[in-house]
Amino acid sequence: xxxxxxxxxxxxxxxxxxxxxxxRVRVLPGVRAAALVMGTELNRRLLAEAHLLPxxxxxxGAADLVIAVRAESAAVAEAALGQAEAxxxxxxxxxxxxxxxxxxxxxxxxxxxxxxxxxxxSVPGAHATAEAHQALSAGLHVFLFSDGVPLADExxxxxxxxxxxxxxxxxxxxxxxxNGVGLGFANRVRRGHVGLVAASGTGLQEVxxxxxxxGAGISxxxxxxxxxxxxxxxxxxxxxxxxxxGRDPETRVIGLVSKAPSAAVAARVxxxxxxxxxxxxxxxxxFHGAPPASVLSVATLxxxxxxxxxxxxxxxxxxxxRSGRAGRPRTGQVLGLFTGGTLCDEARAIVGDAARxxxxxxxxxxxxxxxxxxxxxxxxxxxxxxxxxDRRVGVVLVDVILGAGAHPDPAGPLAAAIGEARVRARRVHxxxxxxxxxxxxxxxxxxxxxxxxxxxxxxxxxxxxxxxAAELARDLVRGRRGR
Amino acid sequence: xxxxxxRACQLVVxxxxxxxxxxxxxxxxxxxxxxxxPRRTLEDTGIRVxxxxxLGGSAPADSGAAWRVTLDAAAxxxxxxxxxxxxxxxxxxxxxxxxxxxxxEATGESLLPLLWASESDAAGLRPGVVRAAAAPARLLSGAxxxxxxxxxxxxxxxxxxxxxxxxPSGDDLLAGxxxxxxxxxxxxxxxxxxxxxxxxxxxxxxxxGASPLGRAWLEHACRGELLEPMTGFAGVLxxxxxxxxxxxxxxxxxxxxxxxxxxxxxxxxxAGTTLAARVRPW
Amino acid sequence: MAAEGGLFGAELRVINAGVDLxxxxxxxxxxxxxxxxxxxxxxxxxxxxxxxxxxxxxxxxLRRLGAAQPVLVDVxxxxxxxxxxxxxxxxxxxxxxxxxxxxxxxxxxxxGALLYERLAETQEEAERLAGSGTLTFDPCHHxxxxxxxxxxxxxxxxxxxxxxxxxxxxxxxxxxEGLGRALRYGAFAADVIERLRWFETVLGPALGxxxxxIGGVDIRSLIxxxxxxxxxxxxxxxxxSALLIKTLAPHVAALDIPAVERERxxxxxxxxxxxxxxxxxxxxxxALDAAHGVRWSSLVTVMARNGTEFGIRVSGxxxxxxxxxxxxxxxxxxxxxxxxxxxxxxxxxxITETAGLGAFAMAGAPAIVQFVGGTPADALGYTRRMYxxxxxxxxxxxxxxxxxxxxxxxxxxxxxxxxxxxxxxxTGIAHRLAGxxxxxAGLVNPPMACFxxxxxxxAAELAGADRGSxxGT
Lengths: 483, 282, 473
Hints:
The complex is a heterotrimer of chains A (483), B (282) and C (473).
Chain A: E1 2-8, H1 15-26, E2 31-38, H2 41-49, E3 65-71, H3 74-89, H4 106-112, E4 118-121, H5 125-137, E5 141-144, H6 151-163, E6 168-169, E7 175-178, E8 181-184, E9 191-199, H7 201-213, E10 218-223, H8 236-247, E11 253-258, H9 263-275, E12 280-283, E13 295-298, H10 301-311, E14 333-338, H11 341-351, E15 355-360, H12 364-367, H13 378-387, E16 393-401, H14 411-427, E17 433-439, H15 448-457, E18 461-463, H16 466-478
Parallel strand pairs in A: 4-5, 5-6, 9-10, 9-11, 11-12, 12-13, 14-15, 14-16, 16-17, 17-18
Antiparallel strand pairs in A: 1-3, 2-3, 7-8
Chain B: E1 3-4, E2 8-12, E3 18-22, E4 32-34, E5 53-55, E6 67-69, H1 88-105, H2 114-117, H3 128-146, H4 149-159, H5 169-187, H6 192-206, H7 212-222, H8 228-237, H9 245-253, H10 259-279
Parallel strand pairs in B: 3-4, 5-6
Antiparallel strand pairs in B: 1-2, 2-3
Helix pairs in contact in B: 1-9, 1-10, 3-4, 3-10, 4-6, 5-6, 5-7, 5-10, 6-7, 8-9, 9-10
Chain C: E1 13-17, H1 20-28, E2 32-35, H2 52-67, E3 70-77, H3 78-81, E4 89-92, H4 104-116, H5 123-131, E5 136-139, E6 145-146, E7 158-164, E8 170-174, H6 190-214, E9 217-218, H7 219-227, H8 238-253, H9 259-270, H10 277-291, E10 300-306, E11 309-314, E12 322-325, E13 330-333, E14 346-347, H11 351-354, H12 376-387, E15 390-399, E16 405-411, H13 413-419, E17 425-430, E18 438-444, H14 448-469
Parallel strand pairs in C: 1-2, 4-5, 6-8
Antiparallel strand pairs in C: 3-7, 3-9, 7-8, 10-11, 10-14, 11-12, 13-18, 15-16, 17-18
Helix pairs in contact in C: 2-10, 4-5, 4-6, 7-8, 8-9, 13-14
């Protein structure tokens, strides 16, 4: 890969021409990136960040035009630069309002895409209700990623959808797997016969990824939004999805995952699940009611995955054991720094009184005005690095979430932060243990094995499930007391 | 002669000021001269960067001027819109209509998403320029309300020169922001000295980073002098009686490819902070 | 309803509104994704309007609009046929407007009409009478009527009678006076009044006689043909006028009136490229009236201007008007005139856009787009944009340039508020002084305030019904 640039000090070019030319250069064969901008200080910084500022362009001034290209070879790059100049020189032909412009509403988009069946809504929360209702009017199922939707709006949306035979997945729904295709943040998993309903995005990601690792597959994975099993919502979407799964011939086992549900709603949901006649595995933390006979109630996400696979008739599904022995106890407590909310809750419960503090970077307070940590984990990385200097912390427990929509290499920056944390700890003559769990599969674009290796190289102990990671972290600080 | 495009060119005058010579169908600029004559492009004239151009009067024969622009038959126009006192509520409503028109009508890549970026959560702002502008733009608004000059300078530095084009998007946004403080501030009868402190902080922040033309237009905007379509828009916005803002907005959006939109984004952000400053004076 | 809502097992096809990231991921997996160029809605009211009641009502309103069969059946004096007409009633274009707030050309037309009706002998007398409060000023739209520009309609004027064969309702419009000095632009010189008298005594009765003899003319199919011949039936009516004259001419020739009058009728009709305009407007009105009054519907059934204000009416909101200041068109001016001379937009002729013609059908009338310095490609663009705010596409009016796609039809208040895209309207530009006439043509948009007010009103009605039935949450 080489980067080449030319600086034309002589003339301003109007921005339409610049944008058109850079678009035309960008699509030339062998070209990876291209930019045509005025050489202002800020533009040069942007170019540098995009690795598009070779030495020959560093001295460009605000009145200079910079043409920069990154391409497979020097020859391709030089040819592209020549092309760019040619594009600029060429007379702009009559543009006319060209290709038809993109649709401006969900209704308009649905009209242009015959057979459209799902609207994926991730607009700012204040406008999400309108978009979701609009999608229902267009006859679409709704995947509602946006957060900040008032509870009353959620209830109204779900009631309306139910009356029309449509499903609202969300609000604040991170993941669904519909017909084998992931919506939102989703891992690449095998298709199979486990149908899941989850009022928890990262919970669903953990369970589906583990089922994949256990060699089984998913028929459908329906996210319903974290509040679906709250008293007020009454499990509207969960009940609807359950009844669909009950009738879905591909689904042989039903899995149910939720953040802490309302007891009344959980009981009702279990009753409906039991009535499907299919075996059901339920992870409903904090719910201690008696489930119907066909329902297996489990205490961890890992057990939910294992349970589902066992119900399919597989003998003794196993995940690899924990990563190393706890050994001699460490001083300090466990600091949990998570990007997935359900994973955070589950781990906190397991670690118990060995916990120093558990932070969910996906919670509203951390995502206001910035992307979700699954997309941009920099806040969490910074917190990991800081932990090295905190004497009260003996073990840092982290999750890493892979899949579509997630950061292209979340383990990379985390590994760097872990390295920094350990250096800081050493400076004050302590050792810091880092325990990590990576949610994902070998088919995810980031590659599970690759990501795990990066963390191990940085000195982290990597566990195959969230439960194992939390238990290891707990045992590392409790050690003596634990055994 | 400093730069040449198809239908306009820029001259640096002896005192460092920037002048624009443009063909007839280019909007009038506060520092612009529209050339009389057939509508051909300037590139066809053979004029080149670096040449000396004599303006008006009678330059001595040995000045080395390759071109002469005579001003004998020139007419002038007024780049400052008429400003009336408008009640804050009425102005807020007009600004809301203007915002609606901008949001609906703007096309192509611009800083438009900044108008709702403050309320966005995970909405990963797409074009890199928008992402880069989001933080300084937020800082700009907050600092203007607080009259925090240090932050204003920092915000302006973060925006100046950002983006592609003859006037980078960030420059256009700053010019719109400054125009709002000058004109809307005048309409709301804000303290003149306070207003000037805001615009001067913008100028100071943009002094180095802005493109030459962007900086020239920012200076004019701080004096309330605007391009012709912007003058028309500000005139309608600050008119005595309520008029249809939409048509005037469309005129502004048609300037350049994204310049008009970026300017409007800056103006709306600026007008919002001006109103807020008026409601909470300190 | 299918058990799985058709979701499980179906091929996933996704609409993406918001973060591009997710659409990119789906696209990479080969899933078909349509991306919304999302912007925040104009007003948050819109969230309350996406409801099943409104969806169903709009389907019904749109069905009625599409099913309408306008037939031109007669020409009669207004007093005989227009409901609620009296000898001292003056109907005008647009939303309600008292004399005191009328703009120049509308005042001129009022004066002309009073002279024509012999209610006044001089201009001064007419002005006094108009301001005296003894006359009734009322919008054409309150009487199932439409009038271009000033739209002044009085008792003795002959009006076209349009019948909806599908719904039974009727609508009315005056006869078009041609270009140049005309009452609709506020001219009231002697020649203008004389022409109106000739309409009353000769043209009107003759056309009425012909129409009764031939049992009416199917206007829907006539418009359908004209749209394929380059008309949008608002600013360009050349083909439609020719088609109408072709239909009527043999029967006019057979009328039992003096040959000189037959000749004058045919010459007048042949010399007026906008002969069809008022016919088309009445046809649009009769169809939209049929679609009006469907409870909860957010379909716009009237867009009209009175030279001062722009007003709309909405199917589910009864007789209420939602108004805002009338804009000034952007366009080309005839030699010697400029934007300074223009009157704010006026006339009921935006009824054509409301019914899916005019600027909505611009793709079929590229000649029109030159008024705003555009190209034929722009014409396609204008029409394409209007699909974003309409509920459906016309079955009858099809555009060759868009592969015979039906014109965008049935403006939805919700889609206007959601997208911020305003209806486009083709319009003539009147001089702001009475009597000078048309000084240009161009494009104009309604003010957003009309749609916001309508949206709020519909939301309030829905909320009221929820409270009433206790079904709200």
